[in-house]
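Re: that backbone. Tokens:
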């Protein structure tokens, strides 16, 4: 006969065992529901993270809960995680051409969701042409393409903007092995990656581009819009050619074939004086923060998403393929039922001919990772299905345009554009939690809550000198009423990598502070 005390322990052990089985079953069902099958840029439904708890059971007055529950992360650790990749740059008051710069500075940050972050960012001053270039790049099927584009695209834009005479001087210096004046001054965080094993290949492709411009004497109508479009398309064409000519070292992360078969979207801004050009490819987004005369904030989107939710973009895709394919070109809001963005760099599995793809899959399967496609996409009849031609939007900056937010879709999936502008606007002005409340009628309880909210907002505002960091804090920890819930923020940052992707994507943000006094 089992003694009563031991029997009681057996009941408790059996209860804990049942809880572990329930938890395992829950996680299995989550995976079966499709949360782990995200190919590229999948949308994820909003999830109440605070409401997620593993099952608990009360036995003889004692409550047992799975030990997955963790204590709240201290604020110091939260700040360490959020600020690890933040970067700020203050622009000199003059741009070198005896005119006041229209950009005061920039704040940027990256918060990874993937074990290997697939997002990238870039910022540079054009030294031999005019203006500044800033961009965010959202990779998928790996980070190789986003990395290559973030390093190379601005050079292609610079070459497209330079006059032929300057290009001839550069070519002469290279040919005679003389020093070449730099085209760009980069503004990088020390953690920003740099690929070192493809430099020669990248330079040779860029040199071929400026040699062709010299040969064609392309110096007429050298406007920014045309330069941006030409640079985007030329880089994507070079990515394709490099992969076909040189498959590269299979052990390299940046072999040309890896770059070509992965992909990325891109949102790039060129600012020169009052002229703002946004070149967008995919579903990252650029939004202006506008302060009206009465002090209120409004959001002005100056880029369009290239996906199934854009009716004009959907019609463009359908018009480029035979009517017989209209039911298969876009399926379940994805290109060929697989890819969410309708424009992007790389992704040659949606651009090359079927013969070319089959040859790559048959001869170089060793270079492909286990989760990459090794067969043609379904209903692959009339490629290319994906294009790298950006949509360029032109905007003349006004005094009421205070800042520009560029971000990958990881931010926009969590926050509405108006909320994003509101958070940054209030962070920059500090008016929301400083203005007096006289003339308003409050109960004692409402006043207590208001003071608590202001205290919380003030603490986090003081913590975040970087606007992009402040925005990420709100994106992950917002309580839905304009303040940050430390419990929610702690839980979002504490998620293990295999669960984090269920709740959010990689987030990359660049906030450009505009010099409205000069407009």
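Recovered sequence:
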């Amino acid at each position: 006969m089992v003694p009563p005390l031991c029997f009681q322990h057996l009941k408790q052990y059996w209860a804990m065992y049942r809880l572990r089985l329930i938890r395992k079953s829950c996680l299995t069902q989550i995976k079966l529901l499709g949360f782990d099958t995200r190919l590229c840029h999948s949308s994820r439904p909003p999830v109440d993270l605070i409401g997620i708890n593993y099952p608990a059971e009360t036995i003889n007055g004692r409550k047992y809960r799975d030990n997955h529950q963790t204590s709240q992360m201290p604020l110091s650790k939260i700040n360490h995680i959020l600020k690890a990749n933040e970067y700020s740059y203050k622009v000199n008051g003059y741009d070198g051409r005896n005119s006041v710069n229209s950009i005061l500075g920039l704040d940027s940050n990256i918060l990874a969701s993937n074990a290997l972050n697939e997002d990238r960012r870039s910022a540079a001053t054009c030294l031999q042409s005019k203006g500044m270039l800033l961009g965010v790049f959202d990779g998928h099927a790996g980070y190789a393409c986003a990395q290559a584009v973030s390093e190379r695209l601005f050079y292609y834009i610079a070459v497209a903007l330079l006059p032929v005479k300057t290009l001839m001087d550069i070519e002469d210096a290279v040919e005679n092995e003389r020093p070449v004046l730099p085209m760009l001054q980069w503004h990088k965080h020390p953690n920003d990656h740099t690929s070192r094993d493809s430099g020669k290949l990248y330079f040779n492709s860029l040199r071929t581009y400026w040699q062709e411009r010299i040969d064609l004497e392309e110096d007429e109508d050298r406007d920014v819009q045309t330069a941006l479009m030409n640079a985007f398309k030329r880089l994507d064409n070079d990515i394709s050619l490099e992969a076909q000519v040189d498959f590269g070292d299979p052990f390299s992360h940046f072999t040309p074939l890896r770059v070509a078969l992965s992909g990325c979207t891109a949102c790039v801004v060129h600012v020169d004086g009052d002229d703002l050009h946004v070149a967008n490819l995919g579903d990252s987004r650029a939004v202006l923060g506008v302060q009206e005369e009465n002090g209120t904030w409004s959001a002005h989107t100056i880029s369009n998403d290239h996906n199934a939710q854009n009716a004009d973009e959907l019609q463009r895709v359908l018009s480029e393929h035979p009517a017989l394919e209209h039911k298969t070109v876009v399926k379940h809001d994805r290109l060929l039922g697989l890819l969410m963005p309708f424009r992007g760099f790389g992704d040659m599995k949606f651009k090359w001919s079927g013969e070319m793809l089959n040859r790559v899959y048959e001869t170089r399967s060793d270079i492909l990772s286990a989760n990459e496609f090794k067969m043609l996409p379904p209903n692959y009849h009339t490629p290319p299905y994906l294009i790298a031609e950006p949509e360029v939007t032109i905007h003349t900056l006004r005094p009421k345009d205070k800042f520009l937010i560029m971000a990958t879709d990881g931010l926009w999936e969590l926050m509405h554009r108006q909320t994003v502008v509101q958070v940054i606007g209030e962070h920059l002005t500090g008016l929301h939690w400083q203005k007096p409340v006289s003339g308003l009628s409050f109960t004692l309880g409402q006043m207590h809550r208001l003071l608590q909210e202001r205290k919380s907002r003030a603490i986090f505002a003081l913590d975040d000198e970087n606007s992009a960091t402040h925005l990420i804090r709100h994106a992950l920890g917002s309580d839905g009423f304009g303040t940050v819930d430390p419990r929610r923020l702690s839980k979002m940052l504490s998620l293990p990598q295999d669960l984090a992707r269920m709740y959010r994507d990689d987030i990359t943000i660049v906030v450009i502070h505009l010099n409205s006094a000069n407009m």
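The mean pLDDT is 82. The first helix runs from residue 4 to 35.
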